[in-house]
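Practice record 12: protein with manganese (III) ion.
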Amino acid sequence: MSSKYKSRRAFIADSAKGAIAVSIGLSAAGSLIPNDTTANNYSKHLIFTNYDQQPLPYKYDALENVIDAMTMEIHYSKHAATYAKNLKEAAAAEAVDVSKPLEDVLAKISKFSPKMRNNGGGHYNHELFWQCMRAKKDNNAPTGKLAAAIDKTFTSFAEFKKQFGDAGKNRFGSGWAWLYVDAAKTLKIGSSPNQDNPLMDISDIKGTPLLGLDVWEHAYYLKYQNKRADYIENWWNVVNWDFVQQRFEKL
Ligand code: MN3
């Protein structure tokens, strides 16, 4: 628990109108995101996450041969559902206005509890992750402006996949690999531990995520066991490049 969080909670506890006081505090700072000192490259066009778990955009067996149906079912209905449930508990306890996008909280996550950080990240990351996938496709690759930007930044799609794969393979323990856009509008590859992500003010890598890969063991262990590299290699076949490209073009 950060000292900032303790003081914030103490403030809430001391105030008979805690929720009102906090909401005034937020509006006094203007919108939570623009002109923020964290300098996250946060694009309002990419706000999409609310606090409720959204329906999976395909059936559990849609990614079969890459991610098996049982893994998808447990991952979505147990792991991810629990992040959403715990996030809402944290939001209630910390007087967060859940009618506003979750991204607002992530950008100032250092001011909230570890429960908010872990479950807010967990919920956001998984909501994005499901959208980043679709049924297996041959010769699956980005097209258009995103393909051109990837070639320009990483020299080729093959080199991009190698670097992104390395980010996932080299993440020790649990975490995520990301393709994100930084404040200078440059495509970047990075990874974050646990359920952190580039939107968070505490993150070592900062920007707007375009594509995320879950490398927690729960994402692949039933089918791949210890072979994370095989999971990553197969995962390229189910990446929804249309979705990633749409995000890129909205920036
Ligand atoms: Mn997961």
